Amino acid sequence: MFPPPDAPKLPSVSVSPSAEIVEGSSVNLTCSSDANPAASYTWYKEDVINPLRDQKQHFFSSILPSDSGKYYCTADNDLGQKRSESRNIDVKYPPKLPSVSVSPSAEIVEGSSVTLTCSSDANPAAKYTWYKEDEDSPKASGHNFTISNIRPEHSGSYYCVAHNSRGRHNVTLQLTVREDFPQAAKLAVTGITLVVFLVIICLLVFFLLAKKKPSALFPVPGNRRDNNNKVSCTSPSQHTGKTESPPSHSEEDEELNYASVRFSTNQTDPIYYNIRSAGSRRQKVKEEDEHVEYAAVNFSPALRTVHQDSEEDLSELYSTVKKI
């Protein structure tokens, strides 16, 4: 006599090995249910939409930490379907290579406070121990290692050991502490900075003054007076009979020997003058008097008739310059 048809009963899930599951080991999941006709099975992982396998067993040849999670199966036949309870798979593994950090991350100055941090991925969670190279006893235990009021003697290599029941892993960190400047050095640096600043200010003032007064350093040729050694000759009708004192000369104009002659258009009769250079007596006058030379003009009109040399210019003017 055959048993009556029946829908699948609640499936059961078994895991082999039943002991702790370690990374790299082989793991087998089995789903079973009482049903008539016999049920078909499908494996699922929570938070994964698609089914993993349509078989009674789900096998891991070398399980990974990423395979950890909750698994369940379904059993179904023509009369119905049942889902099993979820079974948690926890893969154990030793600590991965730890990562270390220093806070603050900038240059470590003597007297400051520094915190070293070590972290590693492990299952079960890793424990941490801090050591300094060439020292047997540990410096600290825990995720963080803080050094308050750090000194230059704290410089050196530190390493963090992350460990759990499955293994251990360590990483080394180099710590360098910069000595703080003594008070005397700070004062010296401040003094040098102040001196350099004052020198820059003085240079700026000098260049500004030089830029505002260029004529003091380079006289403009147009500023020279053109009245030096100028002899003004006028007609007898305008001449007063007095000799005007010429303006004084500077030493740099002492070598100049020239005359400026102005003609009067009101004079109708030609006047003749003889001009004699005063250069031959310059040396003697220079020795007798270091002041500027003066010249006097003696006028000696010589009237000529209009009939004489009509082709000559009636406005000709000649003068004789005598040294005083």
TrEMBL record:
SUPFAM superfamilies: Immunoglobulin. InterPro entries: Ig-like_dom, Ig-like_dom_sf, Ig-like_fold, Ig_sub, Ig_sub2. Residues 11-90, 98-176 form the Ig-like domain. Residues 218-256 are annotated as: Disordered. The keyword Membrane applies. Coiled coil: none annotated. Pfam families: Ig_2 (PF13895). PROSITE patterns: IG_LIKE. This is B-cell receptor CD22-like. The chain crosses the membrane at residues 187-209. Keywords: Membrane, Transmembrane, Transmembrane helix. Residues 229-240 have a biased composition (Polar residues). It comes from Pundamilia nyererei.
